[in-house]
């Protein structure tokens, strides 16, 4: 059926039960070698290795099912799977850059994205420049004839600045640069990159798509055939591919993405409101709150907010912060986000940016609102603040 809602696409994309004995979910193909009946068939598979099943690393029915589902959801031409979100970022950046090119990356990009640019692209002769995420159309002043890629992450996953994607994309197109976005926070449900001028949309599927903190997975969705071919060829040269069980977990996660996100969104907003009223908190960084500086852009371009946001505390000694965090019962202290469980992560944005200055004196706590009841999460945080105050 055409023109269905995204909730419906999530349930049906990448599935063809009639081609699989009526079984609802696609089979998980564990595959390296593919056998060919004749020399003709073998040679034909080499010529059309991106279209047919030729070798496990290049694609299997399990791979194609996840890629097809992600591309359909995002509204792109086709997608390329990778073994992690970071691998998707590294593959996409490598696909479009060579020595002598100039790349612009938002200053609020995920730390390892920055590290890949600084420690791999620069040694290979690519000039990397970070820009203020709030630059908007002002990006024109930074664009050069050799600017090959403009890399966005909106919102930034630590401090949540929203980028003016249409304005940046319009300016980038004027010099022929490829516009990429790390769309992990919004998922294809809450931000539609291709409708805002983006060429390559990247997801750490590890987060919301998988949704259960039990697999590493990435996906690169491309606007058109030329872009996809460039990315696919690079992924093939690097030997990038995800394992079949992780691809299956990605597909399975997609079926419930919409209902999970509704709860993540609702709980995050409840927690954000509660935190904003706490005397220990100087500011809450959540794009869907009216007091957030990027709120108007978020409202214009996004259709929802997910479960990840930050709270800035008033300055406290490290020992008090440790007392607060060490005794958490429901929130886990750890990296990643997007799973069913709530997480909290202290961070220092000042140390990971170069184009802008972070001057907030207190510690930042990044929270991921999981699927626990928000009242219980609030009790956990309330107890945490009691411990913090007792340690002052
Ligand atoms: C915004 C963002 N992009 C990409 C990644 C990388 O994903 P992965 O952990 O699957 O490599 C992360 C991981 O935390 C992330 O937060």
UniProtKB/TrEMBL annotation:
Q: Gene3D superfamilies from the entry?
A: Aspartate Aminotransferase, domain 1, Type I PLP-dependent aspartate aminotransferase-like (Major domain)
What name does UniProt use for this protein? Cystathionine beta-lyase
Q: Which reaction does it catalyse?
A: L,L-cystathionine + H2O = L-homocysteine + pyruvate + NH4(+)
Any idea which residues bear N6-(pyridoxal phosphate)lysine here?
207
- List the molecular function annotations (GO) for this entry: cysteine-S-conjugate beta-lyase activity; pyridoxal phosphate binding
Q: Give the source's domain of life in one word.
A: Bacteria
Q: Which InterPro entries match?
A: Cys/Met-Metab_PyrdxlP-dep_enz, Cys_b_lyase_bac, PyrdxlP-dep_Trfase, PyrdxlP-dep_Trfase_major, PyrdxlP-dep_Trfase_small
User: Family per UniProt?
Assistant: Belongs to the trans-sulfuration enzymes family.
One GO BP annotation here? L-cysteine catabolic process to pyruvate
Question: What are the alphabetically sorted keywords of the record?
Answer: Lyase, Pyridoxal phosphate
As recorded in UniProt, its EC number(s) are 4.4.1.8
In the UniProt record, does the keyword Transcription regulation occur?
Answer: no
* Cofactor(s) required for function per UniProt: pyridoxal 5'-phosphate
């Amino acid at each position: 059926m055409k023109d269905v809602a995204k909730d419906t696409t999530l349930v049906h994309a990448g599935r063809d039960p009639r081609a699989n004995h009526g079984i609802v979910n696609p089979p998980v193909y564990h595959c390296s070698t593919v056998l060919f009946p004749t020399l003709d068939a073998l040679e034909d598979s080499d010529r059309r290795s991106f279209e047919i099943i030729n070798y496990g690393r290049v694609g299997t029915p399990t791979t194609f099912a996840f890629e097809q589902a992600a591309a359909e959801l995002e509204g792109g031409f086709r997608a390329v799977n990778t073994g992690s979100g970071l691998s998707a970022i590294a593959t996409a950046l490598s696909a479009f850059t060579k020595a002598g090119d100039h790349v612009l990356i938002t200053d609020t990009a995920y730390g390892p994205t920055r590290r890949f640019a600084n420690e791999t692209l620069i040694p290979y002769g690519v000039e990397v420049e970070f820009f203020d995420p709030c630059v908007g159309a002002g990006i024109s002043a930074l664009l050069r004839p050799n600017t090959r890629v403009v890399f966005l992450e909106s919102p930034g996953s630590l401090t949540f600045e929203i980028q003016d994607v249409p304005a940046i994309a319009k300016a980038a197109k004027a010099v022929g640069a490829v516009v990429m976005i790390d769309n992990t926070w919004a998922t294809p449900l809450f931000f539609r990159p291709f409708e805002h001028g983006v060429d390559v949309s990247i997801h750490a599927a590890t987060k919301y798509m998988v949704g259960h903190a039990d697999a590493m997975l990435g996906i690169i969705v491309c606007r058109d055939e030329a872009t996809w071919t460039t990315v696919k060829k690079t992924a093939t040269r690097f030997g990038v591919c995800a394992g079949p069980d992780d691809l299956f977990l990605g597909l399975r996660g997609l079926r419930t993405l919409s209902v999970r996100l509704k709860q993540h969104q609702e709980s995050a907003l409840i927690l954000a409101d509660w935190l904003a009223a706490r005397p220990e908190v100087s500011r809450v960084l959540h794009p869907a709150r009216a007091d957030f500086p990027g709120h108007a852009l978020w409202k214009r371009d996004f259709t929802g907010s997910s479960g990840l946001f930050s709270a800035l505390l008033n300055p406290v000694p490290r020992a008090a912060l440790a007392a607060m965090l060490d005794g958490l019962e429901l929130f886990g202290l750890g990296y990643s986000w997007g799973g069913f469980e709530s997480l909290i992560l202290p961070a220092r944005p000042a140390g990971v940016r170069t184009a802008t200055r972070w001057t907030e004196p207190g510690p930042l706590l990044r929270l991921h609102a999981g699927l626990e009841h928000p009242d219980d999460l609030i009790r956990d945080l309330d107890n945490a603040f009691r411990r913090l105050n007792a340690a002052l």
